[in-house]
Design a protein that fits this description.
Layout lengths: L6 E7 L6 H9 L6 E6 L6 H5 L5 E4 L5 H11 L4 E4 L11 H5 L7 E5 L14 H17 L13 E4 H7 L10 H11 L4 E5 L9
Parallel strand pairs: 1-2, 1-4, 2-3, 5-7
Antiparallel strand pairs: 4-6, 5-6
Length: 206
């Protein structure tokens, strides 16, 4: 709970057994989240067992795909705000406070991983990937008359439940292209959007 508003965290998971509990615990330590929903996307390791060691809500999504897992978690969320992130250590739980600084003024806050000074050593953001994300983000920005954008693939986002309700019927993608679809739909609804830089760290696991 923050400023009398409830927050739901949605984490997609696929074979994250070695580190998912640590990541869930790091988000719990922020004392912001009223619920943490972890969507297991057909993991073949001990991901489910590790999730069940925590207070997080376990959901299984049989349709394979990053977008399918996130959509399932968003549908199940009860908070006034939905936070999307990853449980693979690529993002810092503490960065949630950066997002919270803007929720009074914006309906949605997008994270960006393309700020050079916040890309940590060994993070998977080589030059070509960084430039590619920036180029595609700029295309979306100008095609759809959106806010300033510099990253089209960052999972870390906060959106109000009311903004989600406006677009949920338009979300259809099950694969990795889900983030651009989410961003485009929010822009088209003319909700107030801000992009902020977040730390991008080395991934744990495969």
């Amino acid at each position: 709970m923050y400023k009398n508003k409830s927050f739901s965290l949605v984490l997609p998971a696929y074979n994250e057994a070695t580190h998912i509990k640590k990541n869930i615990d790091s988000f719990l330590e922020t004392q912001i989240f009223d619920e943490i929903i972890v969507v297991d996307n057909n993991s073949t390791d001990l991901t489910k067992i590790e999730i069940e060691k925590t207070p997080a809500k376990y959901i299984c999504e049989k349709v394979q795909g990053y977008g399918a897992a996130l959509r399932k978690g968003m549908e199940a969320s009860n908070g006034d705000y939905i936070v999307l992130c990853e449980p693979d250590s690529t993002f810092s739980a503490k960065d949630i406070h950066k997002f919270l600084a803007y929720i009074d003024d914006f309906d949605c806050i997008f994270g960006t991983r393309t700020t050079k000074s916040l890309i940590h050593k060994s993070a998977k953001m080589q030059f070509s990937l960084r430039i590619g994300n920036i180029i595609v983000a700029k295309i979306l920005e100008y095609m759809f008359l959106g806010p300033t954008l510099s990253d089209v693939g960052c999972t870390y986002k906060v959106l109000s439940k009311s903004a989600y309700e406006q677009i949920k019927k338009n979300l259809t993608i099950v694969g990795s292209e889900f983030q651009p679809e989410l961003m485009i739909n929010l822009i088209l609804k003319k909700v107030k959007i801000l992009e902020i830089p977040v730390n991008y760290l080395e991934r744990e696991g495969k």
